[in-house]
Amino acid sequence: TTSGKYNVDGLSVKLGNLTKNQGCKGNPNITVMLSSTTNLDKFRVMIDTNNGTLSYYNGTVSPVVIATSDLLKYDTLSKECFTLSFDVNTDGSVECWIKAGESGFVRGTVPKDFAEAISNFGNNPLYLAVGPGKAYADLSYYFSVDVLGISDDKNTKPIATQFNSLVSDTIAKTEDILY
Question: Which one of 20, 91, 159, 179 is most buried, by most CB atoms within 10 A?
Answer without folding.
Answer: 20
